[in-house]
Amino acid sequence: MMWRTGGVLGLRLAGRGAAGLCSNKSQKPPSSSSKSHSSPARPRAEKQRRRREREEAILSGQHGAEDTSVKWSEKEETVYTAPTPPGTKKDTTLPFPPSYSPGYVESSWYQWWEREGFFSPEQHEKLPHAVDRTFSLCIPPPNVTGTLHLGHALTVAIEDALVRWRRMQGYRVLWVPGCDHAGIATQMVVERRLLREEGKHRRDFTREEFLREVWKWKNDKGEEIYHQLRSLGASLDWSRACFTMDPEFSRAVTEAFVRLCDAGLIHRSEGLVNWSCALESAISDIEVDSLELCGQTMLSVPGYENNVEFGTMLSFAYPLDGHDGEVVVSTTRPETMLGDVAVAVHPEDPRYQAFHGKRCRHPFTNRVLPVITDSLVDMELGTGAVKVTPAHDHTDFLLSQRHSLPHLTVIRGDGTMAPSCGQWLEGVKRFDARQLVVDALAEKKLFRGKKNHAMSLPVCSRSGDVIEPLLKKQWFVRCDEMAKEAVQAVEDGELKIIPHFYTKTWRTWLSNISDWCVSRQLWWGHQIPAYQVELPNCTNTEEERWVWGRSEDEARRRAADKYGARPESITLTQDPDVLDTWFSSALFPFAMLGWPQQTADMRRYYPNSVLETGSDLIFFWVARMVMLGKELTGQLPFKQVLFHSLVRDKHGRKMSKSLGNVIDPLDVIHGVSLERLQEKVMEGNLDPRERLVAMEAQRKDFPQGIPQCGTDALRFALCSHKMQGEDISLSVSRVLSCRYFCNKMWQTVRYTLGVLGDATAPVGSLEQTTPLSPMDRWICSRLYSTVSQCEQAFESYELHAVTSALYDFWLHSLCDVYMEYVKPVLLQQQDGGGSVVQPGTECSDSARQAARSVLHHCVSVSLALLSPFMPFITEELWQRLQPFGPGAASQSSLCLQPYPRSSQLVAAQSSDLPHNHDHAHLPCVLADIPLPPPQAHWHFPEEEEAFLLIQEVIRTARSLRAQCGMTKEKPAMWAVCSPSQAQVLLHYGSAVWTLSRISSLHIYCPHGAHDLHSSPPPEGSLIGVVDHTCQLHLHVQSGVNVEKQIVQLSQRRDKLVLKLKEVLGTVQSPNYLTKVPAHVRQKVDSKMSALQQELETIEDQLKILQENQRTE
Asked: Which stretches make up the Methionyl/Valyl/Leucyl/Isoleucyl-tRNA synthetase anticodon-binding domain (predicted)?
């Protein structure tokens, strides 16, 4: 027998598939290709190689992470000091702090939300905008022993965004918090504490005494995760918080076990399990880590003073019985050869044709071992002959079923050799026995050598122990029929999996599922409600008799009926094992609602609306929830499954405690020093090399530690990643940039409050606000488009598209454009008309009031749009805006306000407003009357389209000013353009003047539009190309740095040449005309024409500048 080299199972057989945790049923033999086995090993080897490269890059400094590390300076922290008892509303009448401070903003709000019951579904009845629809889900219950990392934070950020969005839409929302009892992890934590503090082991206590210690620890330390969830702003209904060991939940677990037993879906039988000798318990597949070894490696194993050698393959000979000759087998586990029952070869292997049907003699037990043939044997691995040890290898166990081979257990649950091995090995630790066996083989001249061997070593993630496959009598759940229903549910569309590509994974795994072992040899957990029956005067002690029941009394009655005995004469002994933690977790969507009772919550919120979780839990949790939910309730537990990607560090490594690269979200929220980060790594139980890599990565990534970013910035950064696709590589620098966005929001509202505070007239309601100027209409239409984008993206769960739309609107439309334009308007600066665009003389109070109202509603609506992602800062800013609004809000918190809808922004205007129906057939930019038509209250697509030209003109004008080194000067410029472009420039004249920082803009149309009466630009002007029909001209005045202009133009020319080459390469590529659609070719042609014209213009400008330089 040997450890795995590339798959879940032993490597000696070709085409072997994973058998699950422990399988005792036959599986269909896969392809017999002798080479099929080596292919799975390659991806694992490649993965291991990449991991090593990343580690070496970190240690050698070649990764370049240092150059992109988080750079920041300490900000002056503003602290909220107003006396606010927990649960009371925060005082927002205090002076507005000059800059954003996460600590100030996030203070007090959550306690108020929670005390007011805003997160309870019962709040739904009080909402004026309530709709008769329900949205329910559960949080994936984290382990009570753990703390959340950024992967958990991603789950919380996504789920809370969805929950808050639906709640604001008026849905009746239930989001249930929960915590998993984490059988193995919790028991280990408490055992270590007792050993450290009292010097006692678990076995020094009775089971009841030990469980009291566990409950004591849980009550003292088990609230850490709930504190983290509150810090993340999760709007959970805490009144329904659910712990998997709560009495009600425990009753549901018992009920589920009994029902499944009654249905014949749980049975007790013997099968192989993943066994941890350190824990003396079976563990689940998800608790088994694969340690990839490239060759000989010395590893520390719990219970051994010296390191143990792995990553080698040994060969030894089995002599033929009754014939001359021998069969040499290869193995990575010589200690298990005492349990060998056969030797297997491939039927087509020419080396062993003469050995078919022969028998070997075991050198130590004298047992006869048949030589069997099976097409699963990999002829290319080792010697091509493999030893078969069914009691200690998953694939050998399956092979034994095909060939009716016996099972011999030679290693006990504590990791020592069994009595069947003989006195020379009995009681010896398994890895100590390894060398004794090799020495004994050498003594008998049967040892044939040892060589390096790449392999995958299964290790218990909890204890660090090397996994031992052991044959045990356990309780198993029959999964095949339930799995078929789960597959069918997806194929029939009853259950929708998002992203869709996971449906293939779902179907493949469930179509090849094995029975699920649910027995765990622990004390902490749900003790299995099964009882061994001892009948009076029964002489057959080998036969096991079992019954199950919701209580011992029920089990006794069942035993009496089953075996025809009087209840009082029966002795019952409850199975000391507990159920796999994943069994109780699989019941969470309905047990949290009161199942098996038909509670009001069960009737209203089951099935759940959606399950959102990480893609790594598709098998261990999601599939089992679907199977047990359908079986026990008759319904699927949820209608949709939404998977998000895994979070990786900036070096591409999966965030894992075993790598020491996990980041506590609270450290990002509050900030942490590098010293404290390093202390956390030292506190962990890491391999020395992993510790070295982890600490070096921290020094490079966070030389100053992690800055205080705040909850809102962290949540927004997490949701800004595309969650339905590739893994997420999150850097703290990205979170920090989101904190800067928070400060931008803060300063925007600060300015808005100043504008509103100076106004004499109140702000009208959104329905009463009519955008008057072209820029008002543009920003209103941009808001409408943003709301529409958010609606569509939220419905398709594309949260990154929502955050992108909101970020772009607030930063690039509201702040960079509209606010910069509106500042002089509100300061009573005015604009005029004609072919020369410059400050005019007309600016009415009504226009200024309209601009104030538009600004207020743009900010207010945007805060509501952002609220699901950034609950703290939006609440703080929204509360401060309320006194200036058009009346008291219907609810006291933003989180209960209606989520903005595009339909409310195109509502019909009041009948008393004047209308201009000419807008129906004229472009909005050419309209003379500024009032919009009634069917387009805040939606003006023509304005948005026309303003694209304006943005390019502004960009080009700023570039020309920069080329001339003009920082404060406001020069005059000429625009040479087409008549239609001239109309657009006139329409947005004041915006062009203000945002380009120019004194005037002369418009010249060489072809048509003679009514403008404008002269062409002066000779020798500096030219900027807007597009192929529009140019800006800036007359170069004396004193301008000509040399600098020449350098800048030359650099621009070089860039344009590269771009043009790239476009030409596309155009000249084979089949361009046949494969590329016409509309795409048209865009490419326009781009190429603009590049060519700009190049020509730059060449002309360079000539003029060089001539001027010579004349000077």
From this structure: 776-972
